[in-house]
Every structure is written in structure tokens, then in C-alpha cells.
Design goal:
By secondary structure, the chain is mainly alpha-helical. The chain contains twelve helices and no strands. The chain is globular.
């Protein structure tokens, strides 16, 4: 499983568990679609999400989930449109704003990515996933101290997200802090992180997420 897919899956699982702090958790069809996605049937999830937003065009959470799933299929322009629709419907949909930041990151528009994450944090400064995303951008920019600071902040806010723990482990690895790297690796594994093989490849130098 690629690092990109892991991030998309983590976002979708997060959305299935809870919406933004201003809204109630999703029920019914979105729970079912999340289960489809977790099974690995991403294309089916996209098909079902498209049907859902056609029937419920003002469901900003569903548009956000659609953006995540489309991005997982590398349908970048379509994902961009889905995120934009979600934010149009709900300017406080921090998951969609963070998704837009990820799109900027993919396009190597790192300043715009950081701005999107900061915009999400201006809405909810306890949104741990935005800090973890900022950590990834900081790594891309070679700002190791900032990466660790962002990662530690994200982890302090959410110790239950395996992707946040894994991201922080990677930052510690590049900093040469093997003790903390191994602690966070163990935490990620205990939380059910599904990309342990990817982590091992990073540690072995076979994969460089900074590129």
C-alpha cells in the first residue's frame, strides 16, 4: 500500500468516525461507503459517493469523502473539484481544506499547501491531522526542526491516529533520533498502522518521502 493511499484511507476513516467539530457524525450511507473503502474497493466507493452527492448535492461531508477517494485514484482535477464544492457548501469543512492542501503539496506548491493547513487550523487549532500534514511539507522543504515540531504537536493532540504516529516516526528517523523513531514506530503499529512495510523501506533508505 502506497503512502498516498494510506493518507487517503486515514482521512476517509477519520471522516467516517467524525465530521468537523461543528457538525454531527455521519450516519447511514456514508458509514456504509466508508466500509466499502476500507475493504479496498476504492472505485466502488467513488461510484457510491457520486450517486450519493447526486441525490444529496449539499452534503459537504460526502463531497469531502469523494475528494479523498478520487485523489486516491490519482484523479487530481476531479478531487480538486470535489473539495472545492465541499468548501463552497461549508467553508468550515476543515477536512476538505486540508485535502486542498494535499493537492497543493502534490503539485509542489508548498506555500499554498501550508496556507491551506493554516486556514484549517484557524478554524480549529486542535485539528491534529493539519499539523501532521504541515510536518510532511516541512520535510519536503528540508525544514527538519519545523517538521518535528509540527509532528509532535499533531501527536500531542491525537495519540489515536496511526498515520500521525507513523509520520512523526519518519521525521525522527531523518533527524537521526532512532530511540524516538522506534517509540513512534511501535505506537503506530499498536494503533494498527497498515504501512509498516513502507516504514521499514524508509528506514532502509529504499524510499525517501522527502522527494
Amino acid at each position: 500500500m502506497s503512502a498516498a493511499r494510506l493518507l487517503a484511507l486515514a482521512c476517509l476513516l477519520l471522516l467516517a468516525a467524525c465530521s468537523s467539530r461543528a457538525d454531527k457524525a455521519p450516519k447511514g450511507p456514508l458509514d456504509d461507503i466508508s466500509a466499502v473503502y476500507r475493504s479496498g474497493a476504492v472505485e466502488e466507493a467513488v461510484t457510491r459517493l457520486r450517486s450519493h452527492v447526486q441525490a444529496e448535492p449539499r452534503d459537504d461531508l460526502a463531497w469531502t469523502m469523494l475528494g479523498h477517494a478520487l485523489l486516491d485514484l490519482n484523479q487530481v482535477d476531479e478531487a480538486d473539484a470535489a473539495y472545492a464544492r465541499a468548501v463552497e457548501l461549508n467553508p468550515r469543512r476543515i477536512e476538505a481544506i486540508t485535502g486542498q492542501g494535499r493537492l497543493f503539496r502534490i503539485r509542489e506548491q508548498y506555500d499554498k499547501a501550508m496556507a491551506a493547513y493554516e486556514r484549517a487550523l484557524a478554524i480549529d487549532d486542535s485539528y491534529a491531522q493539519a499539523y501532521s500534514s504541515m510536518m510532511v511539507v516541512a520535510l519536503k522543504l528540508g525544514q527538519l526542526d519545523k517538521a518535528i515540531a509540527h509532528g509532535e504537536k499533531g501527536y500531542s493532540l491525537d495519540k489515536a491516529d496511526p498515520v500521525i504516529a507513523a509520520n512523526l516516526a519518519i521525521a525522527y528517523h531523518y533527524a537521526g533520533n532512532t530511540e524516538k523513531r522506534d517509540q513512534m514506530t511501535q505506537a503506530a503499529q499498536q494503533l494498527g498502522f497498515k504501512g509498516m512495510d513502507m516504514l521499514r523501506k524508509v528506514y532502509a533508505g529504499e524510499v525517501d518521502v522527502r522527494k
